Amino acid sequence: MRKQTFTALFCLIAGISVVTFYSCQKEKVAKTPEQTTAIPQAVLNQIASLGFSTADVHTFGDDYLVEGDIRLSKEDLKKSFSGPVLRVADAEQYRTTNLVTGLPRTITIKVASSLGAAFVSGTDLAISRYNALGLSITLQRITSGTANITISGFNQGPSGGFITLGSSGFPTSSGNPYNSIQMNTNAAAYGSNPDVNYVGSVIQHELGHCFGFRHTDYYNRAISCGGSTSNEGSAGVGAILIPGTPSTATNAANSFMLACSNGGNRTFNSNDIVALNYLY
């Protein structure tokens, strides 16, 4: 889930400090919306055993949200990990242990009919960006039948000065991409007239998770989110450095997998392309 703060520059409304004017969006700190329901310690222990940080866990329907935009189901929490040890270092592109297999293959994507035209066009934009790289996965949007990935909507306004943009998950152990992306339809997320480049960039990011990418600034979310240094986790789920990508964060700017959105158009940088071509 990628988030932005709403900074109250000159846009205060009747003394309300959470401002929803699109022109006043400013990315600041990665925090999830406030939540009143405590997460049981047993659940936190399961999340930690899978390799995710338990510093900021929230419920999302029947799932749990970790690291800002990763959904874990109750079934996910029952799984055990066996695979490469997590590498924690100041490096850029990371992948999970599970990747999409059965290559080459076509990944079908369907946009729920309840989503507006900007989400359909944003999906097409994200698809075109991936397909332009000539990878061993080809993306195709379909309008009927069962898709590999379904993009649907939820409506959630700002909370505590932050807004949720979207969420997804990681590939399954059977080699399939994560099958769901949820995008926020609240006007505070993308405005009443969503910009296709902005929507498409968030969908592109969430697809990256579906294909096995962790956040570029996994080891230090402050790079894109501001605030103090924060590592997303350090256990067996996999944050494996992708060969050919830098071992420092000097080229992390504008990566499509940064944890926090810049509020606009963000596509692949040169190291993202190296990582995608290495994996697919």
TrEMBL record:
One of its GO terms (biological process) is proteolysis. GO terms for molecular function: metallopeptidase activity. Signal peptide: none annotated. It comes from the Bacteria. Transmembrane segments: none annotated. Coiled coil: none annotated. Keywords: Hydrolase, Protease. This is Protease. It comes from Chitinophaga oryziterrae.
